[in-house]
Amino acid sequence: MKSLRHAVTLLVPALLALGAGFALLVFAVARRVVTPMRRATDTEIIAVDTGAQTIELQRTLDTALPGRYGLFTTGTYGYVKLGAVLSADGTSVRRKLLTQIEPGARVDRAAAFSGYYYSSPSELHLRWENLLIGSPAGPCPAWYFPAASSTWVIQVHGRGATRAECLRAVPVLHAAGLPNLVVSYRNDGEAPRTRAGAYALGASEWRDVDSAIAYALRHGAERVILMGWSMGGAVSLQAAVTSGHRDRIAGIILESPVVDWRTVLRFQARLAGVRAPLPELAMGALQMPLTARLSGADEPIPFDRLDMVARADELTAPILILHSDDDGFVPADSSHALQEARPDLVTMPRFTVARHTKLWNYDQTGWTTAITDWLDAQGFSASA
Q1: What pLDDT, on the 0 to 100 scale, is given for residue 25?
Q2: What's the pTM?
Q3: Domain assignment present for 223
């Protein structure tokens, strides 16, 4: 009996410690979901040839793709543009540099591959201006590209991104005569920070987009088109079903969108090697007030409300979805499910090979044509 009591005495603290450790692991996974990310270095620079203006990169699924891309670097240059693949083998890729790198420049090996391409609105050679749009979170910076139409496009960037992500879409939309308002939102590193500084995955960020809609309507817009990239898609969809101005939302363009967060987070957990039941427990923690705060969130995350496949009947505006079946980060499954649920509203041309938010980079002609055709079909283009 004494030995049994001794075993129990040792076992209970061990079980409590194990439970506490597992709980901390759940909170750590949950915190990663809502914490704004620093840009990850995912690419190694092997060599730069300043004579030939080429760059050799470690081969990855992204760096080997045809098209035009960007590369965030450290050293003399913070960002460089990349052109065509010139040669490749099993471990490396040599690409043309579209940013002139001078002899003697320092370019560190660690870099981040990007689909941004344009890093500043001035690179588009269009008239534009800086704005501040008042929102419940505070003044949010925005870029405004004027055009003739009374239908404005409000572009919303994704998680861990900035407004520069959206610049690739401005030329095709501007060519259709549509003004562009490229906005920021709370906790994105440009707009004001909330108490916890955490993402709500669209559940609160839509309010900042709603403020941008109100701004557009006060300044000459009669209706708006929302264009959301990645998490910006989730934000735009929440605005479409929740905004007090939703009757003025005439259309939605979604680029590599998050349509249902549960699907995305389960997929990303598998990519990261996070095993069940941790992803489900982390999402559960984010839905409860106390555990959401312990996970770093400002408020509980309403995953049911963010599931726009389940809420497809609430959508009323025509939608164009641009999503590669080979996205690799936000799977296209929910986009296809939304199209199947609302074939009367959703147009979804098929894209493959292109990676997450890099459809323009891989197939600029096909991507631009898809947008132009949809704008014409909906009567949004100035020429329609």
Answers
A1: 81
A2: 0.94
A3: yes
